[in-house]
UniProtKB/TrEMBL annotation:
Heme binds at C427. It is a single-pass membrane protein. InterPro entries: Cyt_P450 (IPR001128), Cyt_P450_CS (IPR017972), Cyt_P450_E_grp-IV (IPR002403), Cyt_P450_sf (IPR036396). It comes from Canavalia gladiata (Sword bean). It is found in: Membrane. Its cofactor is heme. One of its GO terms (biological process) is sterol metabolic process. Keywords: Heme, Iron, Membrane, Metal-binding, Monooxygenase, Oxidoreductase, Transmembrane, Transmembrane helix. This is Cytochrome P450. Belongs to the cytochrome P450 family. The keyword Magnesium does not apply. GO terms for cellular component: membrane.
Amino acid sequence: MIEGIPFLVLLAFTLILAFLLSKFLSKSQTKNVPKGSLGYPIIGETLSFLKAQRQDKGSEWLEERISKYGHVFKTSLMGSPTVFVIGQAGNKFILASSDDVLSAKKPLTLLKIFGRQSLVELTGPRHRLVKGEMMKFLKPECLQNYVKKMDELVNASLLREFKDNETIEVVVFMKKLSYDMACNILFDIQDEHTREALFEDFIIAFKAAHSLPINFPGTTFWRGQRAREKIVDRILPIMNKRREELSKGVLSSTNDMLSCLLALRDENHQPLADDLITDNFIFLFVASHDTSATLMSLMIWKLSRDPELYNKVLEEQMEIIKQREGTEERLTWAEIQKMKYTWRVAQELMRMIPPLFGSFRKALKDITYEGYDIPKGWQVYWAAYGTHMNNDIFKNPHKFDPSRFENPTKPIPPFSYLPFGAGLHNCIGNEFARVETLTTIHNFVKMYEWSQVNPEEAITRQPMPYPSLGLPIKIKPRFNVS
């Protein structure tokens, strides 16, 4: 993570930061903060947390601390003191709190990559304004218009990728596919050179979002910030061209999400600043890219390992094709709604391996929870594990059972199932991800049979959960299907 940094320089930097952190923490010594360990100066317990994530042992990392300190405990992550609040009540406390109490403001690393004016940083009227415009492209009424285009893109991508290959890496393919979906459908970026360059920059930037905030040349964080600068440099000329086309009436604000933000006016009837637009462009690309790629990769991984699941999904998808009327060859919105079993498999997969292990909020004022003080400026973290694997909420939680999402005998309590967040902080792209995933799996199973090259391949978090070896599979075209 750190290359070519003189030891004495690094030592001096660490000691200075440790002194500043000790001053900051001393302000809270008289408070009744939760029990726990803040770990090493600056680094805290970040390295052990990230190591547990990479090994898909985040639940064990949590359980070790819960057994010592209870379901509310303190630690230090990404350079900031952090309180973990585990369980349904804790999820509700964090996700239902107003932004003037617990803000969605992220740790320094995410802030530097996403930007200070991304949707997760905005509050109040500006947040509602920007979110409202984004939702115009992500609500079900709009998604209906994307299905055919998505289907064509997935079909073409599969044919191109598998034409001369018997083996492919699914993770790489899914990341590129979800990126192409965002370029084509959400942002209308068609220039191939620009798309390829942006893709490489986004990969580097996303890695930096979950690294230590050490900004020395050679660190992951440093490289990520350079990649972000390149992204901004590449998108500004596109924005300027579209702004000109909008003013001439050549382009409509409904064409794509970038044009929509450029045409938007704030409460003072002024256009949005360039940095706000670029921050949200980066945020939306990251949000629409990795979450979907994760779920689609895990679906292929799971179907490879469970023939019964695979056969049921295949049966559902082929029945949809069989029931088509006329000469229609592409997927329709109505057919997406018929993929109930396939989506239940995805829901159960996200319960057991949630795309987000959890997420941060930041206390904007001194607050209390269950008798503990959480000082202003501290981070608060919820973790899906606290409810997803709770036997009182999901019976036999370690058993993979898609039927638990089919007319459950008792409703799933609010703030208990959190693959897309909840409450005020529900993911705005959850329906987009659903349609994208179902479209991709439909094409995969109707066109190909496949098997894992490494049947025992495990899952790792980086920080999203992926098969650890990239999920290479051997592919075989399904007879008489194109």
